[in-house]
Specification:
- The chain is an alpha/beta fold.
- Helix content is about 40%, strand content about 10%.
- It has a single domain, classed as Rossmann fold (3-Layer(aba) Sandwich), CATH 3.40.50.720.
- The protein has nine helices and seven strands, in the order βαβαβαβαβαβααβαα.
- The N and C termini lie far apart (about 55 Å).
- This is SDR family NAD(P)-dependent oxidoreductase.
């Protein structure tokens, strides 16, 4: 381990690393020196998300380019046999070592119906969202966490949207995102005697590949999107939450955070890192200042 590669020798699995936050997390773990198993359903020549070209092999290449070791493994995290085989492979190839498990599987964007009461929302889509974004996390932890328990150490991170239990505007989306927070809290309780940490983490306004497309911009000219939405000025790259994960994984006192929920911008201030452009957005602070200000008398 060196100061520039604090996670050298560490082994990570990033579930749902094809794009967005998962890709940012995988690449930043690679930059810190980790071996990263990059999982998801979209592979070269066989993309699984309509309209999205990204693949797990591309993400693994990015991990390698950053100095880590990227290993792409096609995995449908809703399929128990796939997940079981994944961790059997990690166990075999890494001599039983797994230091970091990040549950970032989502797949719910196309299933969400906003401004729709739950009884009018597609029931099939709502239930499928829970399968993709909640059941998949449970299955993944069920097979991944025993490798950590066996060694008496490790870090499990649930990626979600928001750090509290407030309603998020539509029932099925809200249920999925809040479930991830409680999964971390519940796992932390069970894992406490075994030396394994579990916590949840949320980005702020994530400037993902899909979000850039929605705004009709690229990462090089993303600020042009502020003309459409002033809040876009507070957005952050997927690398920002990736740096948060790397910082948590390298913190010798991370167990003190077990069971709690965190935001990327707050951790940036705590650990002293910046986004790729040198900025340090904090959506938590911005949201409270902008949307939760008490009315003026």
């Amino acid at each position: 381990m060196t100061p520039n590669r604090p996670l050298a020798g560490k082994v990570a699995v990033v579930a749902g690393a094809t794009r967005g936050a998962g890709r940012g997390i995988a690449t930043m773990l690679g930059e810190a020196g980790a071996t990263v198993y990059v999982t998801g359903r979209s592979t070269r020549g066989n993309p699984q998300t309509e309209g999205r070209p990204e693949t797990i092999e591309e993400t693994a290449d990015m991990v390698n380019a950053r100095g880590g070791i990227g290993i792409a493994v096609r995995t449908d995290h809703t399929v128990e046999a796939d997940v079981k085989a994944l961790f059997e492979r990690v166990d075999r190839e890494q001599n039983g070592r797994l230091d970091i498990l990040v549950n970032d599987v989502w797949g719910g964007d196309a299933l969400s119906q906003w401004n729709t009461p739950f009884w009018e929302h597609s029931l099939d889509n709502g239930l499928l969202m829970q399968q993709r974004a909640v059941h998949s996390h449970i299955i993944t932890s069920h097979y991944g966490v025993p490798l950590m328990v066996r060694r008496g150490e490790g870090l499990v991170i649930e990626i979600t949207d928001g750090s509290d239990y407030r309603y998020r505007g539509t029932l099925y989306y809200s249920l999925a995102k809040i479930s991830a927070i409680h999964l971390a809290e519940a796992m932390a309780a069970d894992l406490k005697p075994h030396g394994v940490t579990a916590l949840s983490l949320t980005p702020g306004f994530l400037r993902s590949e899909a979000m850039l497309d929605i705004f009709g911009v690229t990462e090089s000219n993303w600020r042009d999107g502020v003309e459409q939405d002033e809040h876009f000025a507070q957005s952050e790259t997927p690398s920002y939450i990736g740096k948060a994960v790397a910082a948590l994984a390298g913190d010798p006192n991370v167990r003190e955070k077990s069971g709690k929920s965190f935001m990327s911008g707050d951790l940036a201030e705590e650990y002293g890192f910046f986004d790729t452009d040198g900025s340090r957005p904090n959506w938590n602070t911005y949201y409270k200042k902008t949307f939760q200000q008490p009315p003026e008398l």
